[in-house]
Amino acid sequence: MYSLTTLHRRIFTGSRALAALLLFLLLVIPACGGTPSAENEGQESDGQETTQSDLASATQSESTEAWTTVQAVRPEDILSEEERTGAPEYRDWNEESLDDQPIELPVGTSAGAIPAVKPFNFGRDPGGPEDKTLYLTVPKLGLEDVSAFDSISEEKLEESAIHVPATGFPWQDGANVYIAGHRLGYPDTDSLYVFYDLDKLAPGDEISLKDAAGDEYVYRVTEQKVVPPDNIEVMNATKGKSIITLQTCTLPDYVNRIIVQGELVEKPA
Q1: What is the DSSP string of 27-93?
Q2: Which is more confident, 39 or 234?
Q3: Distance in angstroms (rounded) separating the CA atoms of residues 109 and 156
Q4: DSSP state for residue 178 in the 8-state scheme
Q5: N- to C-terminal Cα distance for the chain?
């Protein structure tokens, strides 16, 4: 007959063995059930292997398409010293770009889309005042000294009109000074209805610009037309001429662009 002490010892020893067995089962069973053995892998159907292979290929393709490496280009990498420091010459900006997709301001705003174009002043100091803000006056539209910020940001476009930085300035010979403004705009800002009546301008009407130094440049309207959102011809320079272009959207869909162009007829001496 066991003593009470011996009985307690045997019970304790048995409990430890049972606990060890349970721990072993808990660790081994999930591992076996979650990882297929080599034998099980060999029994998988060809269709299942094909599906997994296709899924891996699709995932890799999607990952590849989701990332694009872009290398920055400096002016000195593609322009000579003379091209970077000399006065800009006429170029055929209508030449097709390697990338015809980028749109800097999207269709759907009341200013109209602004396509990305080859910059007239790329890598050059355009000269003129340090402050590149222009001040637009169009007597027929009741506009006087409306700020045209040298910016492509939507924030500035909501505030007033903008001068597209990729285009020229009025003090540059052969430039196309490109200015965009909202047809409707935003309350309590200079953008409100700034170009609402742009379609009323006709050949012979006057447009003038002042720079930050107070110099004035006067243009006469030569034409008005409607172009699609991806048209870049209206942003090109015109050989032998200095011009201005005003842009806004068509109503009610905001899809196309109303374009008014004028030629420089008077500039500071």
Answers
A1: HHHHHHHHS--HHHHHTS-HHHHHHHHHHHHHHHHHHHHH--------HHHHS-HHHHHSPPPP--T
A2: 234
A3: 13
A4: E
A5: 128
**Which residue type, as a one-letter code, is found at position 250?**
T
Q: Spell out where the chain has E strands.
A: 103-105, 114-115, 134-138, 143-150, 161-163, 176-180, 206-210, 216-227, 243-249, 257-266
Return the structure tokens found at 61.
Answer: 């393709």
Write out the two tokens for 243: 């011009």
Token look-up 């694009």 returns 68
The Cα-based distances of 189 to 3, 112, 194 in angstroms read 99, 18, 10
- Whether the full predicted model's pTM is greater than 0.70, yes or no, is no
Going by CATH, does the domain composed of 79-124+131-266 fall within 3.40.50.2000?
A: no
Per-residue pLDDT tens digits for 200-216: 999 999 999 999 999 99
- For the chain, which residues make up each domain, given as ranges? 79-124+131-266
Per-residue pLDDT band for 244 (boundaries 50, 70, 90) equals very high
